[in-house]
Amino acid sequence: MLQKLIHWSLHNIFLVLLLTFFTIAGGIYAVMKTPLDAIPDLSDVQVIVYTDYAGQAPQVVEDQVTYPLTSALLSVPKAKVVRGYSFFGSSFVYVIFEDNTDLYWARSRVLEYLNGVTGKLPSGVTPTLGPDATGVGWVYQYALVAKNQTLAALRTLQDWTLRYPLSATPGVAEVASVGGFVKQYQVVLDPRKLQAYGISPLTVMETIRNNNQDIGGRVIEMAETEFMVRAKGYLRNLDDIRHLVVKSVNGTPVLVQDLAKVELVPNERRGLSELNGEGEVASGIVVARTGENALNVIEQVKAKLQNLKGSLPEGTSIVPVYDRSELINRAIDTLKHTLLEESTIVAIVCVLFLLHVRSALVAILMLPVGILASFIGMHLINLNSNIMSLGGIAIAIGAMIDAAIVMVENAHKHLERASPGQTRRDIMYEACKEVGPALFFSLLIITVSFLPVFTLESQEGRMFSPLAFTKTFSMAAAALLSVTLVPVLMLIFIRGHIISEQKNPINRVLIAGYKPLISLVLKAKKTTIFLALLMLAATLYPLRHIGSEFMPTLHEGTLLFMPAALPGMSVTKAAEVLQQQDRIIKSFPEVESVFGKAGRANTATDPAPLEMFETVINLKPESEWRPGMTAEKLVDELDKAVKMPGIANSWTMPIRARIDMLSTGIRTPIGIKVFGPDLAGIERIALQVEQAVKDVPGTRSAYAERITGGYYLTIVPDRDALARYGLSMSTVQNVIATALGGETITNTVEGRERYSVILRYPRELRDSPQRIASEVLVPTENGLIPLGQLASLRLEQGPPSIRTENAELAGYVYVDSGDRDIGSYVAEAKQRVAQQVKLEPGYHLSWSGQFEYMERAKARLAIVVPFTLLIIDSLIVLLSVPFALVGGIWLMWWLNYAWSVAVVVGFIALAGVAAETGVIMLIYLEHAWRERQLEEQGQVTLKDLYTAIIVGAAERVRPKMMTVVTIMCGLLPIMWGTGTGSEVMRRIAAPMVGGMVSSTILTLLVIPAIYALVKQWQHRLK
After folding, report:
1. Residues 946, 299: Cα–Cα separation, whole Å
2. pLDDT of residue 141
3. 877 band by pLDDT with thresholds 50, 70 and 90
4. In terms of DSSP bridges, do strands 558-561 and 613-619 run parallel, antiparallel, or are they unpaired?
5. Cα angle at 759 between 239 and 62, to 5 degrees?
6. pLDDT tens digits for 526-552?
7. What is the DSSP letter of 588?
8. Residue 564 has pLDDT above 70, yes or no
């Protein structure tokens, strides 16, 4: 069939070229339409349920909101993990779904289950779905800076001038605000005046709530014109609130201003932001919708911000503090340059070996057609251009033109020995027919050998499936083009004076050096095989000294510093610590800007307590760094500079951190989750784990969450006292919520702006348990009485926040292992923990973070890799693959690379390429042996076999070396690359480069020796 396809192509040149033109046009269109991103979207399918329960302690939020929600959502179809977070005044429930679940199907299922549980929640508490995005969607962040504007004015600009226009940008899920001050109207009650007038706080609250509305009165008709009736009553300013009538005494109104002081104050803050150590700022976070083209979203957001600058007050500027488009452009540029370098090197190799430019054009022209064909495949399956998808093309380039090289070289050979009168078309057909089918299947071997990568799941699957797709597309295109376009290009370009193989200086040097070696091998076949096996055994030494990790660190050009303080830190202290750290970090010459955030932004994608900091550190180009400085050294220096008592540091990258937190809930490379029935017991075990892992060599930091370290003022009503005064529990609790908690009564309507109105006691009357007991008054039938007569007040410790996983209480221990490989670190840490930590009944540990991914990938690859070997011809595997591994392992050891999913993917790719080089050698050995048998009419001797092997191996060394050199030279630009994404790509390329060296030795020396032994045994030659 393949021979017929080659024959059809050579006799239908116009149709082949027309189809090629359409392929090129389709490829160019696909390149223009393919979205760009830095890395594949690694985030799990996630639905967030956010519930606001203002003023409530974490334990109240957990008991009344989070636990009912998590227990109900555990039954959602395809949900694999349900994580709950209970913070002061807010609840977050994250439902993580199985891979390949449609996001909007998942959101609709969660909504269905929410409908069934809403009735079990406290009155007025309504859970809402978060945006159709995750923390990984934080693609752009900016700060508002102005010397002549207050933080309140800047936050107002962010909330009401910038946020909504940016939210309307295509692809934006939401724009979250953080930092600055949100305006709030506060009614500060005077308890003595309340007592004098006999008015309870609840009465004042109802008065304000009932006097804040506009209303319509339908229409009236006057003078043949319809007038719509409206009655205005919205609260719009301080005076509107002050002049509300609470009560009338003998015809004299008692106004709110007679009972309280009405003032404009900042709302309670659970998050703040700071820039460059110079002070607080208001800022915004642009969250891209899941699956959107991140680069397009960022560009449109920038354009919108440029248009909105005119609406800002004079002297106010928008400062970008995180821009993922820079990473995306750097990553894509790196791969573009690599592809260009590879193509150029491959072209030069072809010209040098063939010494015929027009012949080299066959391979050179086939290459871009194959690449464009792979882009068509990417476009059809909606695959982004990123470092992994383009990396698949990059590692395939050398192998893509192997068939073209061998077929062109074979055509040269046929032209040299063509009989007179034979047409060029017939010569090309004979040359293509002789090696084309075998080469087609050898390319298919490379294609099929990579298919097991598709069996990887979760993060590793999402990371490498784009690379597997594009490499498969590239090799499949190359296989098809090798039997269609390549014969046509050969017919068009291979003409004119062709230098014979014997006159080619490179070929003469190769043959001169190789012939003595192959002759020696044939004299000492068993010794050659023994030495090869000895070399294979020696590989055990580097193999034992190679560590393991999930994935090499992808340097994003931006660092994320994530220190965690002890619970109970006030917002004032958090601002002070954040500014000190940012100022220190900004003093480093490698740092461009520093943007710090403490607590949470106003988004469901950010479940952060106030004591958790996130500092985005934008770095200058490496060319501007101090001599000898590396990213690892810089992190070490920064870590030492910002160490503070009571604060545990951890360092990562923005995208990496958000992916980790989404997938496992752990923000460091390694984490230990402690599960149990009691928070105190969980904390006790977590602290033991922290001490155990701190002593493990390589530990940069270890921090166990203090899950019972929060501070509480507990008010316990006396039920007997309530009964004496005829009071209900709800009456007392409403007074506490109003007087102390500042419960929101209503919201003012000021044009497009909305601000809350709260009611509470003066700070000086609620700043200690004693003052609260004596000054907070509870209304009874006999007047107002102090709260202290109805309840006891005491100071206690409790949970600052509560975490659950699948409705089970959990505590986290965060571990940063620095530069040590994760595999050996976790193995030693597990041993230490097992020795030093005694688990009580009902408690258990789970190791998580990147280690969790690595273990899962290791288990899957244990099945995938043997399967990869089985789907390639068994003889070729037995000969080619083990010796290909030799060079790959030694090069890994020399470069100090650890085992990772990237490295294993490189070895899988190497298996296919090694098999292909073995196929090419066997093609020539079989052809030479068959021709020798025909010449001797089947009466062959051992000498004839050796002669055939020397002809098939030594005299055809040029095409074999061309395929090896083009593959290796195609990989070298990846090996010496230093741009964004090169850390991952180098680890894929390293096994292939090292493996090609040892595989070449096998192909040129060991395979001929084994081939001779096999044929000698088959034919009983003497």
Report:
1. 66
2. 92
3. very low
4. antiparallel
5. 145
6. 888 888 888 878 888 877 777 766 666
7. S
8. yes
Q: Is the dihedral of CA 290, 295, 299, 300 positive or negative?
A: negative
User: How far is Cα 176 from Cα 604, in angstroms, rounded to an integer?
Assistant: 9
Neighbours of 443 (CB within 10 A): 27
Contact 20, 367 (CB under 8 A): no
Tell me the C-alpha to C-alpha distance, in Å, between residue 202 and each of 185, 633, 732, 760. Answer: 17, 61, 11, 11
Residue 673: what are its φ and ψ, rounded to 5°? -100, 130
The DSSP-derived string for 164-229 is HHHHTSTTEEEEEEEES--EEEEEEE-HHHHHHHT--HHHHHHHHHHT---EEEEEEEETTEEEEE
pLDDT at 861: 67
Q: CB–CB of 528/1006 below 8 Å?
A: yes
Contacts of 418 (CB under 8 A, 6+ apart): 427
pLDDT digits (tens, 9 = 90+) for 117-171: 887 888 878 898 988 887 778 889 999 998 888 888 899 899 888 888 999 899 8
User: Would you give the distance in Å from CA 364 to the centre of its chain?
Assistant: 36
Closest CA to 326 of 44, 586, 592, 634: 592
Residue 370 has pLDDT above 80, yes or no: yes
Cα-based angle 801, 803, 808 (whole degrees, multiple of 5): 140
Q: What does the alpha-carbon distance between residue 934 and residue 916 come to, in Å, rounded to a whole number?
A: 27
Cβ 599 vs Cβ 612: under 8 Å:
yes
Residue 205 to residue 743: CA distance in whole angstroms: 9
Residue type, position 899, single letter: W
Residue 479 CB neighbours (<10 A): 22
423-432, 568-577, 756-765, 891-900: the lowest-pLDDT one: 423-432
What 8-state DSSP symbol labels residue 953? Answer: H
| pLDDT-wise least confident of 661-675, 967-981, 988-1002 | 967-981
Identify which has the larger pLDDT, 22 or 870: 22
Burial bucket for residue 951 (CB in 10 Å: 0-12, 13-18, 19+) = middle
| Alpha carbon distance 545, 865 (integer Å) | 21
Element at 271 (helix H, strand E): strand 271-275
Give the separation between CA 346 and CA 350, rounded to whole angstroms.
6
Task: Report d(CA 62, CA 76) in Å as an integer.
Answer: 20
Q: How far is CA 342 from CA 57, 352, 902, 961, 969, in A?
A: 61, 15, 20, 17, 7
Query: Both tokens of residue 340?
Result: 């260009």
Going by C-alpha positions, the residue among 386, 470, 467, 402 that lies closest to residue 438 is 402
- With tokens 């109207």, the residue in question is 185
Report which secondary-structure segment, H or E, holds 686: helix 679-694
Q: Is 198 left (phi over 0), alpha (psi -120 to 50) or beta?
A: left
Name the band, by pLDDT with cuts 50, 70 and 90, for residue 25.
Answer: very high
| Cβ atoms of 188 and 261 closer than 8 Å | yes
**What is the predicted pLDDT for the residue at 979?**
64
622 by DSSP, 3-state: which? helix
Asked if residues 408 and 487 have their Cβ atoms less than 8 Å apart, the reply is no
Q: At what angle do helices 357-380 and 458-482 cross, to 10 degrees?
A: 140
Beta strand spans in 799-931 (E)? 802-805, 808-816, 844-849
Q: Which helix (H) or strand (E) holds 246?
A: strand 245-249
d(Cα 818, Cα 698) in Å, to the nearest integer?
Answer: 6
Total number of residues shown for the chain: 1022
Residue 376 CA: distances (Å) to CA of 323, 369, 489 = 29, 11, 22
Please state the separation of Cα 738 from the chain's center in Å: 44
SS3 783: strand
CB atoms within 10 A of CB 861: 23
Mean pLDDT within 595-621: 87
Fill in the DSSP letter of residue 503.
G
